[in-house]
Structures are given as structure tokens and as C-alpha cells.
Design goal:
Blueprint: H1 2-13, H2 18-34, H3 36-46, H4 51-74, H5 88-92, H6 97-100
Helix pairs in contact: 2-4, 3-4
């Protein structure tokens, strides 16, 4: 049982490193700007004037959605998404140590 609680603690405390999350957010915002010459080249090559805009919006939407999924899956105990871990039964059976071992007053 202690091993199971230790595994739950590790799941709770593990998060994606902040630098990786920050990099992906900056990458999502800067990627359309950096790749815009390539998008324009593809638009000229295909003869469609609107394709660079479509490609830029589509790639930003896809990577933004993936970032949102990572944020939701990062904390399975927050209670926001459908696949969260519910610890309701465990919390209702929990008794604090003070109830088990009452402290003696020194007065």
C-alpha cells in the first residue's frame, strides 16, 4: 500500500519542466513568422494566393491544441478534465494523526 501511495505522489509531483513548456509556447507563436517565407513560396508554387494563410493558421492551431493537451495531462489531480484521478473515497476515509494519537496538553 505504501508503494501505491508513493507512485501516486510521484505522479502528482512530476510536471513537464518549465523551460520545455515555455519553449513550446514561444515556438507556437513564432513558428508562423519564421516559416512564412516557405509558406509564401508554397503559395506561389501552387498558384493559390490564400494557401500561406491556411497553412500558417492550420499549423498554429495544431501545435496550440497539442500544447493544450499537454497542459491538461500534466496534472491528473486538478479535477478539470475527464481523465483525472478521483481521490474522493480515499480522502473520506483519511483520519488525521491527531485523531489517532491525541497530544497531551502541558497545562
Amino acid at each position: 500500500m505504501c508503494h501505491a501511495f508513493e507512485r501516486l505522489r510521484v505522479i502528482r509531483e512530476y510536471r513537464s519542466p518549465r523551460t520545455i513548456r515555455s519553449f513550446t509556447k514561444v515556438f507556437i507563436f513564432l513558428m508562423p513568422i519564421v516559416l512564412s517565407p516557405y509558406y509564401v513560396h508554397m503559395g506561389i508554387k501552387s498558384g493559390n494566393m490564400w494557401s500561406p494563410y491556411y497553412i500558417a493558421v492550420l499549423t498554429s492551431f495544431i501545435f496550440g491544441t497539442l500544447q493544450g493537451v499537454q497542459d491538461v495531462l500534466d496534472d491528473p489531480f486538478d479535477g478539470i478534465s475527464e481523465d483525472d484521478i478521483n481521490l474522493g473515497p480515499v480522502r473520506s476515509n483519511y483520519k488525521p494523526k491527531s485523531a489517532i494519537f491525541p497530544t497531551l496538553s502541558m497545562t
